[in-house]
Amino acid sequence: AMRLQAPQFQALFTPGLRSVAELFEKKNYELRIAGGAVRDLLSGVTPQDIDFATTATPAEMKEMFTAAGVRLINNKGEKHGTITARLHEQNFEITTLRIDVVTDGRHAEVEFTTDWHKDAERRDLTVNSMFLGLDGTLYDFFNGYDDLKSKKIRFVGKAAERIQEDYLRILRYFRFYGRIAEKPGDHEPITLQAIKENAKGLAGISGERIWVELKKILLGNHVNHLVQLMYELDIAQYIGLPLNGNLEEFARVTKNIQNLSPKPMTVLTSLFKGKDDVTNLDLRLKISKEEKNLGLFLVKHRQELTKAPGPEPLRPYQDFLMDSREANTNSKIFELLKYQGEEQLLKEMQEWTVPSFPVSGHDLRKMGVSSGKEIGTALQQLRDEWKKSGYHMDKEELLSCLKKV
Fold first, then answer.
1. Which of 63, 163, 196, 260 has the most crowded CB, counting CB atoms within 10 A?
2. Collapsing DSSP states into helix, strand and coil, what is residue 290?
3. Is 0.85 surpassed by the pTM of this model?
4. Strands 31-34 and 108-112
5. CATH 3.30.460.10 boundaries in the chain
6. Does domain 1-151 bear CATH number 3.40.50.2300?
7. Phi and psi torsions of 112, nearest 5°
8. DSSP code of 94?
9. In a 3-state reduction of DSSP, which class is residue 131?
10. C-alpha 268: how far from its chain's center?
11. What is the pLDDT of residues 133-148, one digit of tens each?
């Protein structure tokens, strides 16, 4: 059997984990690291969060922790078999091994087991179905490690069965493909067939769950290939994407933004032909207000708000920002520049500080302009002059313009 000794693995052994391991060992309950954290450790990545699996039931864990004076937090996960213990300022989420008894394509009723193989069998993808003993021993029932090394994404067992247990797994397949696979198009035909035949099941999955997965797909690799595939396999219509999405624009924009860290919405908007597409997406996925506003902004301005010919390419963006009365216009403009693939202009725009208009009503009163209406008109005229100068004119220059008037 393979034993992992990587520094990322050694680094997990905090005082908290050592104490947890000791408690389980004393009681002869097995405790292993499960799922995504194992995949990360085998890839040489430090896992963000670690899930543990155990042969102990929730009741046994509670009794053990309570007897040892360990604090338990929120019982929300308990009916799924998850206990969260807090030791040394660190939370440990530990789940009892389980078998799905009944599944409805969204959630499962589970019963507990002590059989590691059976628990691995109900996980979605081979690369997510491995366990790691605290001594570094790898338990891998479905060749997940080989798949990880050869960058293959495969369902555990039969794809159709795994998908029917939870249709969201279709999107998880795409997400991990974008994270692990080396090149686009390296799918098993039988997997694509199973996805196509079960795509409709996504209609019953909540928008919030879909949006979490979709955002990760949009920021992963091979995104152009994966979204094209969503259309080919009839998935798009069930997850809020427009029936006739603009795939050429999508291909162009995904090239533009490769190294620019766009927001997911910036990538997605390139599929949309108009604002109705943003509204429909929002109805299905319940995106945030900020995401919706960004989508509407890009759809509206991507054509006409573009760089100026000549020595001041940034001027249209700067003018737009100066005229805008809305909050976070600058972050929307950054996203627009990413969408347009204007890497250099994006850098300049991010470094540009918005100048403040140097003249106030107070200055005009000192010059003898007294009525509020006149002050308003004069300020607007001076703002226009200031804008024409590229926001360079200072107070004196502006006020001398006023004298001429």
1. 163
2. helix
3. yes
4. unpaired
5. 1-151
6. no
7. -80, 155
8. E
9. strand
10. 12
11. 999 999 999 999 999 9
